[in-house]
Specification:
It comes from Flavimobilis soli. The chain has helices spanning about 15-20, 30-40, 45-60, 70-80, 140-145, 155-170, 195-205, 230-235, 250-260, 265-280, 300-310, 335-350, 370-375, and strands at about 85-95, 100-105, 110-120, 125, 130-135, 150, 180-185, 220-225, 240-245, 285-290, 315-325. It is of the alpha/beta class and about 375 residues long. It folds into 2 domains: about 25-80, DNA polymerase, domain 1 (Orthogonal Bundle); about 85-375, Aldolase class I (TIM Barrel). Strand 2 and strand 3 form a beta hairpin.
Length: about 375
C-alpha cells in the first residue's frame, strides 16, 4: 500500500507571551533564598518562608485557612502576595473507572493547557504540559496543530503537579497512592523548547521537603522531538532523568514530514545525541514511536530502526511503540493490530527491548491538545 504524504510547515517563531503578558510572580517561581527575601519585603520575619514552603510542598496547599501556624493577618497577606491563582480547571474528564483523569486548565491569561493523571495498581503517573500549544507542527499531533501560544512559567508547571498530588492525597482517585510517583513531560508543548522553566520545575520537585516535593529524579521523564543542542545540555545537568525521544520514523524522508524539526537535525544526529545522553548519565533512553497506519508502521522501517539503534551499541535504549490516539476528523489512525505485532516482533528480533505503550483515555480525548482544540472551535 502506498504511503500518504502530507506537507507540513515548521513554525519556530517566538511565542506570543509578550502579547499575553507574563504570569504573576508565584512562590514556586522563587529559590529558597528568594522566598526569604520575598517574605522580608512583605514585612514578615524570614522564618515565614520555611513555614510557607512546608505548607505548599509538604502539605500541598496554598489555602491560608489551613496555615494555622501563621497569624491570620499574615496568612492572608502572604498568600495573596505569593500564591496568586495560576490555574483554573475548565473541564475534568474521567476514564478507566476514574483512575484516569484529564483536566483542561485555563491559565491567568486564558491560555489553555492539559494534564492527565493516571493511577495504576502500584504507582501513579502525571503527564504535564510545558507550553500552551506547540511550535513543532507535527501533523498527527493535536497540540502541534494548535500552534504555539506561549511558554509556561515554572510555577504554572509546578501547580499542575501540586494539584494532581493533592487529589491523590485527598483520595479523589480510586486506588490513590497518597503521593505522586512518576512525572512525564509529555503533555502539550516541547519541553526542551522551554528549557529554563522545565529545569526550574524539576529542581523544585526533587528538592527535599520543605524546599521542594521530594520526588526522585529517576521517576521524571523529559520528552523531546529532537532538539539536539538542548538534549546535549540536558546531558550535563547531572540529574538521572529519563530522556524520551519522539522519533516516529527511522528515515529522514518520512521523519521530516512527521517531525519537521528533523529538517534541522537528522535522524542520525538525533540518535547520536540520545546515545550521548546514555553515555554521560547511564540512563537508558526511551524511543517513542507512534504507529500510524500505512505511514510509518512498515516492517522494513522496524528493521531499519533496529539496525540504527544497534549500530550505536547495545543496552542503551528501549523502544515504546504507541498505538496512535487519533483526533476527530484526522486522516491519521492507529495501525492494524497484526501490523503492530509484526513491527514489535521485528524490533525484538534485532534484540531491541520493546514494549507497547499502555494507552489510556481514548474515550475522553486522551491525546493532549484535543480538549483545548475543541474549546477553541467552540
Amino acid at each position: 500500500m502506498s504511503e500518504r504524504r502530507v506537507p507540513v510547515t515548521l513554525n519556530l517563531a517566538t511565542p506570543a507571551a509578550g502579547r499575553r503578558g507574563k504570569p504573576p510572580r508565584h512562590f514556586a517561581d522563587l529559590t529558597p533564598e528568594e522566598r526569604v527575601a520575598a517574605v522580608t519585603e512583605a514585612g514578615e520575619k524570614p522564618f515565614r518562608a520555611k513555614q510557607l514552603a512546608q505548607h505548599y510542598y509538604g502539605h500541598l496547599t496554598s489555602d491560608p485557612a489551613l496555615m494555622t501556624d501563621l497569624p491570620a493577618a499574615t496568612r492572608d497577606s502572604l498568600t495573596e502576595t505569593l500564591f496568586p491563582p495560576l490555574l483554573r480547571a475548565s473541564r475534568t474528564l474521567k476514564a478507566d473507572g476514574g483512575t484516569t483523569v484529564k483536566t483542561l486548565w485555563h491559565l491567568f491569561d486564558d491560555a489553555k493547557v492539559e494534564s492527565v493523571l493516571m493511577q495504576y495498581p502500584n504507582r501513579s503517573t502525571l503527564c504535564v504540559s510545558s507550553q500552551a500549544g506547540c511550535g513543532m507542527a507535527c501533523p498527527f499531533c493535536a497540540t502541534g496543530q494548535l500552534g504555539l501560544t506561549r511558554n509556561l512559567s515554572t510555577a504554572e508547571i509546578v501547580e499542575q503537579v501540586r494539584a494532581a498530588s493533592r487529589s491523590l492525597v485527598d483520595g479523589e482517585i480510586p486506588g490513590g497512592s497518597g503521593r505522586l510517583n512518576n512525572l512525564v513531560f509529555m503533555g502539550m508543548g516541547e519541553p526542551l523548547a522551554n528549557y529554563k522553566a522545565v529545569m526550574g520545575t524539576i529542581r523544585q520537585l526533587i528538592a527535599p521537603v520543605p524546599d521542594g516535593m521530594g520526588m526522585s529524579a529517576r521517576n521524571i521523564t523529559v520528552s523531546t522531538v529532537g532538539l539536539v543542542p538542548a538534549m546535549r545540555k540536558l546531558s550535563g545537568e547531572g540529574l538521572p532523568l529519563t530522556l524520551a525521544l519522539s522519533l516516529h520514523a527511522p528515515d529522514d524522508e518520512l521523519r521530516s514530514e512527521l517531525v519537521p524539526i528533523n529538517t534541522r537535525w537528522s535522524v542520525d544526529e538525533t540518535l547520536d545525541a540520545a546515545k550521548e545522553y546514555h553515555t554521560i548519565t547511564g540512563r537508558r533512553v526511551s524511543i517513542e514511536y507512534a504507529l500510524i497506519r500505512d505511514m510509518n508502521d512498515h516492517a522494513w522501517r522496524a528493521d531499519l530502526l533496529g539496525k540504527k539503534l544497534n549500530a550505536r551499541g547495545r543496552g542503551w535504549v528501549h523502544v515504546n511503540p504507541i498505538p496512535l490516539n487519533p483526533t476527530p476528523g484526522s486522516i491519521w489512525t492507529a495501525s492494524d493490530p497484526a501490523v503492530e505485532a509484526e513491527f514489535v516482533a521485528r524490533l525484538r528480533g534485532h534484540g531491541i527491548p520493546t514494549t507497547i505503550r499502555d494507552t489510556r483515555g481514548s474515550d475522553i480525548d486522551g491525546a493532549c491538545g484535543q480538549l483545548a482544540a475543541e474549546e477553541e472551535d467552540e
